[in-house]
Model the fold of this input.
Amino acid sequence: MHVHRYEKAWAYFSIGLVLVFFLALVTAAFAGGVQVPSPAGIINPARLSATDFAQPGLRQLAPGEYEVYMVGQFWQWTPNEIRVPQGARVKFYLTSGDVQHGFKVQGTTINVMVIPGQVSYFSYRFKTPGEYLIICHEYCGSNHHLMSGKIIVEAPTAATTAATP
Amino acid sequence: MSTGLKRIALLYIIVATLALFIGTLFGPLQAFDQARLDLYPLVQKLLPFVRSYYHGLSLHGVLNALIWTFAFTAGFLLFATAKALGRDYPRLWVPWLSLVLMVVGLVVTAIPMLRNQATVLYTFYPPLQAPPMFYFGLVLVVVSTWVVGLALWQIYRAWRREHPGERTPLPAFMALVTYTMWFLASLGVAVEVLVLLLPWSLGWTQYTDPQLARTLFWYTGHPLVYFWLLPAYIAWYTVLPQRVGGKLFSDPLARLAFLIFLILSTPVGFHHQYVDPGVPVGWKLLHALLTFLLFIPSMLTAFTVIASIEHGGRRRGGKGNFGWLWKLPWGDPVVSAQLLAGISFMFGGIGGLINASYNINMVVHNTVFIPGHFHLTVGSGVTLTFMGMAYWLLPQLTGRRVWAPKLAVAQAWLWFIGVMIFARGMHWSGLLGVPRRVPMSLANYWQPEWQLPSLLTAAGGTIMYLGGLLFFLVFLVSLFGKRVTIDEAEYAFAEALSPSERAPALFERWGVWIGAAIVLIVIAYGPFLTNYTYNFVAPGFANYWPR
Done:
């Protein structure tokens, strides 16, 4: 097949471009640790009481290490607000009690779908103190726009690790 | 060509434009709502059936993204294929049947949608549940596209018997690729609706598996994008070069680009599910790579189409690196609409590469960056091309000339300027974290830094809508315009500088390419579906929208 030499050069350039981009992503993901969520198990939304989601909330695992179990349900998160100290690493376990929701924390890389039947997992270290907005970013019915929550990251002086419902 | 076929094509294009007319009604409302100006209470006074932002958004998505594109593509490609092959359909009732299925499907889908019983948006993710009529209507719409594909294969086989050993004329070749790719791709949503959602909505099954449904949806959902796009590419490859007085730079490379689309369009769906909990990262990464490879045929298209247009510009006396641009016939709405569509699409393509970028996607997933992106692609690259192609099709189908071509050119410019401002606002808002599909006037988490980009969105959306209104006006008046004799040379398909004879014979061996497409689909989805833990636990939730 005859291919004009400019065309050939353009094709090689295009192939090279996407391969370089792809390598950059793989490097960021596996060497830089910027990774997308992976499966964390399945669950029955009708039987959350028999799981770790029976008592949703924040738990301290070790100094600076936390886990939080959160349930999304028309149209809020339980708990809808958590407080952690600056520098805390938080392991988020999320699931839905009804329809699909989305969990995005403003100003962070936390962005994960919350789907009935699935457990979503994400780990994040909060380095900067302040109020972080949680936004539900998947349409979940008539009051979807009211489904938001808060993560409060406190500077070291404020001594508290308690979860507020 | 029989008047029967022209009538089918014309009816398809009228149905498409009608869908766009109703669908775009809600566009400015959503754009204004981004800037926290809730016009829905006002609209409810005029159109009392409209219940909410989400109701309007559902209609906007289904009518624009599904009906406008499907119906226009059917009309355009049924006509273009017969024109390129120089013969009629052996069984004209087959395209008629497709049209009837499309119209019946549209009406059946529209009834629950207009009554606000199917406010599930055009992605209809379960366990939000719509009435059975909604799913049934969508099935008819998809079956209608299959029947169009069947008609294309029938006319191709009849032509092939009369022309053994010849290369298939390019427009027909591309139409066949488009509908064959779409048939393979639409099997996902067909299984989702027929096996999971319809029985569940009818109450025959109680529970469904939302993660599985999402996977089946996006199996179809991304190639759907190429089902929108390839007809626009067909116009750019086969009509635009001729209209600007040039020739297609390379016919074989155009075929190669389409064959790559045939094999690569489908096994990429997980790039819409990068942040889904139920999909292992290895599969997400494989689909990321395949999606990136899909960028290559679009790059080839950019080269070939721009080189062909440049050829036209130089033949018209254009000089220098860019001087040929100004020599193009910008006063021809068929040309200007498509050139502007192409420019907006370039930005859309670059944005698409960002969305496909695996972990970078976490910054933009489900933010308004995404609708910002697809208004540049389907909302302008495709839609504006179709508007331009309406001005190419209407005279041929009706024997009447396009009314007020200058107004038609202005229409294209308004749409283009509008979408560029609109998309600038949407992309910017998305990077600031504004979620998509949310009425900002009602949300309880508005941030002050969202103000400026939102105003751009509102302003751009309004300008776009004005361009849309002018399109409907020109289209409507043209239907009753002055009768003219069509100069066939003006409406011929482009000749090629590097002709089809230079394409390898392998390009005509459909079995090889369809086989390769199926093998890639099996590799990309097979192991995932056999290892997936099926979990049918979600009951339906209906009526979670205001009545």
In short: Chain A touches chain B through 65 residues (CB under 8 Å). The first helix of chain A runs from residue 5 to 30. The beta strands of chain A are 57-62, 65-73, 76-78, 81-85, 89-96, 101-105, 111-114, 120-125, 130-135, 148-154.
